[in-house]
Design brief:
The chain is 40% helix and 24% strand. The chain contains nine helices and twelve strands. 47% of the residues are buried. The mean pLDDT is 94. This is 3'(2'),5'-bisphosphate nucleotidase CysQ. Its cofactor is Mg(2+).
């Protein structure tokens, strides 16, 4: 099984597990549902990667601080970067489908494989072959958080004469650009490597532009796993978007 196939399979299976948690705990509290989802998906992915790729390091959102700081991954040539449940808040709300599972592989300095499962939407986007989005509409759609859109995203909307599309998890936002539901995703509120590694790998495979908001490359498997900002957009909009974000 190739790394691409493994990423897709594990993201999909973790998503199916999470749908089961939702059904099982439909009458539980939101907090109980969220906690169970995080823990069970993390345990599944860690066990599966240990079995399938025992020599590789893993960086997971649900790992302990000590595990994240483990120097093994910093000297490793292959590191899986996973978010077992991206959009925990949306997962906890039974009527929402904008949450995801991220599985990405970093190798020798860059992302080489990735998958974003959207379990409640019944789909998984995975490298190496990701369809490019359909033609863009005249009015660009800028996807933002439903609670706290960053000022830079609002500036991009104004400069491009666009409209905002509200959505939950980071993975769902990037997927919306890949799928042609949105055209630009600009984030400046700070994330971590597991929030964007798999979505960025998938977006690149679809031919989209990915970078920091100053246009510099996104880097992964760093000692500090904080990623301050990012841009994912259609390539034809990249220059116009970066003209705003670099000056903001």
């Amino acid at each position: 099984m190739t790394d691409h196939e493994l990423a897709a399979r594990l993201a999909t299976e973790a998503g199916e597990l999470l749908l089961g948690v939702r059904r099982e705990l439909a009458d539980a509290t939101v907090a109980e549902r969220k906690d169970a989802g995080d823990q069970r998906a993390h345990a599944f992915l860690m066990q599966a990667l240990a079995a399938e790729r025992p020599g590789d390091a893993v960086l997971s959102e649900e790992a302990t601080a000590e595990e994240r700081a483990n120097s093994k991954r910093l000297s490793a040539q292959r590191v899986w970067i996973v978010d077992p449940l991206d959009g925990t808040r949306e997962f906890g709300e039974l009527d929402r489908d904008d949450w995801a599972v991220h599985v990405a592989l970093w190798q020798s300095g860059d992302l080489v494989a990735g998958a974003v499962a959207l379990p409640a939407q019944g789909s998984t986007l995975a490298t190496p072959d990701v369809a490019s989005p359909p033609p863009a509409p005249v009015q660009p759609r800028i996807v933002v958080s439903r609670t706290r859109p960053p000022a830079v995203a609002l500036a991009v909307r104004d400069a491009l004469g666009g409209v905002l599309v509200e959505m939950g998890s980071a993975g769902a936002k990037v997927a919306s650009v890949v799928q042609g539901v949105a055209d630009v995703y600009v984030h400046a509120g700070g994330q971590y490597e597991w929030d964007s590694a798999a979505p960025v790998a998938v977006a690149r495979a679809a031919g989209l532009h990915t970078s920091r908001i100053d246009g510099s490359p996104l880097r992964y498997n760093q000692a500090d796993v904080f990623v301050p900002d990012l841009v994912v957009c259609r390539p034809e909009l990249a220059d116009a978007v970066l003209a705003v974000t670099t000056a903001h």
